[in-house]
Amino acid sequence: MKHKMSNRDKTFWAVIVPVLVLFFAFNTLPMIKGVIYSFTNYRGYGSYDFVGLRNYLDLFTDARVGKSYLFTFKYAITGTVLVNVLSLVMALGLNSRIRFKSALRGIYFVPNILGGLVIGYIFSFIFTYILPAVGTTFHIGFLENSILASETYAWVGVLIVGVWQAVAMNTIIYISGLQTVPQEVYEASMLDGASKWKEFWSITFPLVLPFVTINLVLSTKNFLMVFDQIMSLTKGGPAQSTESISYLIYRNGMDGGQFGFQSANAVIFFLVIVLISVGQMTIMNKKEEQL
Amino acid sequence: MMEDKKKTNWVLTIVLILGTLTVFFPLYMAFIIAFKQPSEMTNDVAGALAFPQKWSFENFRQAMEVTDFWRSLGNSLLITLATIVLAILIHSIAGYVIGRGMAHKKSFRFIYLYIVSGMFVPFSILMMPLVKQTAQMGLGNRAGVILLYLVFYMPMNVLLYTGYLKNIPIALEEAADIDGASTWKMYWKIVFPMMTPMHATVAILTALGTWNDVMTPLVIMSGTGQNTLPLAQLNFQTQFGTNYNLAFASYILALIPILIFYIICQKQILNGVANGAVKG
Amino acid sequence: MSERKTAKKLALLLIGGIGAVSLTGCGQENTDGRIEVELVSYKPEAVDAFEEIAAAFNETHDKIRLKVDSPNEAMTILKTRFIREDYPDIVAIGGDINYSNFLDADLFLDISDLAEVGMVKQAYLDMEKELELVPKEGVYALPYAANAAGILYNREMFEEHGWEVPDTWDEFTQLCAQIESEGILPVYFGFKDTWTCLAPWNALAVGLADSDTCNQVNLGETTFQEAYRETAEKIRQLLDYAEPNPYAYSYNDACTAFARGQAAMYPIGSYAIPQIKSVNPDMQIDSFAFPANQAKEDNVLNSGIDLHFSVLKNTEKKDAVYEVLRFLYQDETVQIYLDHQGGIACKEGEFEIPAELEGMREYIESGRMADFQDHHYPSEMSVDAMIQTFLLDQGEDSVDTFLMRFDKDWKRYNRDLIRKVQQYQKEMEGTR
Fold first, then answer.
1. Chain A adjacent subunits, 3+ CB pairs under 8 A
2. Best CA proximity match to A230, nearest among A215, A254, A251, A216
3. Does B89 lie at the interface with C, CB-CB under 8 angstroms?
4. Has residue C72 got a pLDDT over 80?
5. C398-413 and C229-238 helices cross at what angle (nearest 10)?
6. At a CB cut-off of 8 Å and minimum separation 6, what does B104 contact?
7. Chain C interface includes B85 (CB < 8 A)
8. pTM for the full model?
9. Can you tell me the ipTM of this complex?
């Protein structure tokens, strides 16, 4: 370390301090306040009392909260796996020798630019009317009833819409990953007479592994925070079978009078997200190093 | 395969073209519903898929009236554009300072982690305190929404900029340093222009997020008489008496600006997103 | 350039950018010296009525300007504004749990010195009293319009087939069987929107349980397992007469289906009538109170306060606000509202009952009405979803499961309230 701050250092601090102040004031500070509220029975307005750890204790015995965690995890795990498999396949397809390549890529990205709420409403209409009508006409038993009305399958409906939107973004990321793989690598493998399948697993996949990490972390996080789709498709129903954590926090925290309790829920949820993301990155980094 | 590298895989092309139906079909549905009248909404396949009896723009006219379309559009544009411009200016220099700083300094490494970890903070935990806070500071308006977006997108954008910085050789800056240029000047003259591809990415990712966002303007600007486009769409989600046709007309209206923008800038957008993944 | 300048520049950039935006947002206030009274209505569907009323008011008053806001998602917006401590002068909301909570948070002004309070039908003033979580001195709401819930039916269809309006539960189930045997669907539900589960629930419960059931439970005098058993059993029976899988259809869908004649009856409130008529403007709708009991005399009409006015405590323009309330309560103004929105006036006097509620007239005129039970349920408990869960539950002991959960959850969600109520009770006993 030098004894005197250089011009460069001073500029750096002069830039970073206001940015940090801004970030602290509108991200960290409200979060701290949220944590404080989590120890109260605050409704959001009016007076409130501190209730100690009661909210946190309640959280672990609340069947509805437990159910929402189960649903959210089920949704996030299946969604993440599906999205990554599908978008990798799509990316391979869109990156191969096809015609209209850029037009096709452009079209498949469209779901991502549209708002989740609107998409949800459109799909809700399709699930409720079009699919059951198709099911009845062609005597396909499981389609005859709206899947959104089924306690067992409603989450699949939400999943379809979530995946539909998420695949768009992840495909583009995978395509850019595939493009970083130099052509010579493939040529070499062709000389070896490797099959397509083998070529993918032994060459392509390891090379796009960093992109798998990005996509896994991003899609897990997005799926865990699912909100728009629930809001527009099921509103948590039927029989509270599709209540995601975010939805429950919003629903009962803002609209209901459980702000204090749901703040506690949000704190735990935050910790869960951080743990999962850090865990994923550590594991994937190890994998990348091995290869 | 080996024999002819130029040969088009037609089977795959056709499969992929058919696959686009999954994208077009929901949009087609939205489109025709937006043109129909409530009395045309039937519960059978043929009826639901059929074209409307007449192509009247009456639903759109009404939807525009109810949502005060032009003003909402103006607000959405203002908020999105202001957020993009400020994000590019502020997040890029923050990303630069953090990226270069953390090469030698622990404190900057810490700042980097502090800001980037903000990505994992769920909005739900911030929402209520933010509503109170912005109101007390007189920021319960469009300016407040822009400011909040700047904070919400800071983690992702800083991550992108610091990532991209690895591609810019530090030698350039050192050369400028020797020439006696201040770091501030050097940044705007040399580094900022070199990060142009990342500016595009940041602009696109930020725009996609802010344009479609409902929650932030809803809780921050509600009651000010100002709407954004998605906020205006809530006009149709009232509990009693939702009108599918008007609602879909308003959805289509809300989708059109971004679709047009996408069609014009499709290439840049796709490149921008891809860039974020590769360099980020 | 020095680093201090750097910091200044960046700060300027930030402040300048944001300032420029906020500037464009200001400068729209223009009250030309009149006192502005802001009224926020929670009924966006009544926006036309309020616009007409506000125009009439502003024409006749040159000192006061009435400004009406009917935002969407009004409850969320109102709560957000309360969080911000940005209060309007008057709120037009329903007599439900939100009102109870706002009142409990001490947001409203006592308006018992307003002469108009004396013109309200007693039944509705009593209803307002029951909404107070802990009984309070004074009057905090001016009831305006009420709705009624029971069963809407397709009059043409009834006349065509010669069906009679039922008076008792047995007659009702027989009628349903009859309708079914003629190949028509007796009732339609839109249970995909969970809140619609509350419509038949409330309509049954008012006839089968006491109107202060929730308070009795809070005081430990009864349990829901006792009070709601019959209601639960009967709402379940209704499913036999509804379309298969009612959980697939929304409120909208059910309104549409009923309007198209796909079902003979629709158990819902009068608020659905404008929606139904938007699909089929010529439809002849009539209604009857839910025949929940074995004897007609025991039946009670489910009617609640759909809209009332409360004045925010923080208002600095009490005189102007009272002037507005007086205007709103003139017969002609009430009539404007009813013409637009239907419903039942809460003011004493000769107001027309809409044709669609003809079948409920005798109940309305004799005051045999009770409030929606769900107006006492905390919204975060989501009783609507619990009812939906119960109806989906095919198990033998579903009624027990449901009611046990009701009792258990009730205690959880109302913990602070129960403590307050019991404490109040003790205090009252102490003072006696």
1. B, C
2. A251
3. yes
4. no
5. 120
6. none
7. yes
8. 0.82
9. 0.85
